[in-house]
Amino acid sequence: MGLSSEGRIMDENAHRVDRGSLLISAPPSTIYGALTDPESLEKWLPPEGMAGRVEQFTPGVGGGFRMVLTYLDASGNGKTSDTTDVTNVEFVGLVPDQNIVQQVRFTSDDAGFAGTMIMTWELQPHPEGTLVSVAATHVPPGISPADHEAGLASSLANLAAHVEQEASAS
């Protein structure tokens, strides 16, 4: 945080945008389903090196879910405990097969992870499938841009593998 010329506190992270995108060989409806289904979220959302569990899932705008992410190597990197990151996610915008806007709050005693991050998922039809883009704003300063972008890329790769595997099993 810094001070503006008027003496107000400014949040440098307000203008930070962490992004990721991937062309996935699946239609927007399949991807939208994976973004809004608790069992699917558990399979693809945790980045490499983590496992996830969805709790308290409520569909629709105003609903959301709680996700417990657990580090597989127990390295003591967790935001909520030594080995876990817990997030509370609220759906604030849902346009089927097009986009999802989420407010994400970390459960942490560390002020570096306080606040509400906004994640916007965009699904754009493409001749070879769907271009999935995610943008995160108001990212807590405790999450480095490089680590966050790596995590987003990992989750997108997991999403592609999940929906493409589901499609081949059908």
TrEMBL record:
Annotated ranges, domain Activator of Hsp90 ATPase homologue 1/2-like C-terminal: 26-164
Stored InterPro entries: ASHA1/2-like_C, START-like_dom_sf
Record-stated family: Belongs to the AHA1 family.
Protein name: SRPBCC family protein
Organism: Arthrobacter sulfonylureivorans
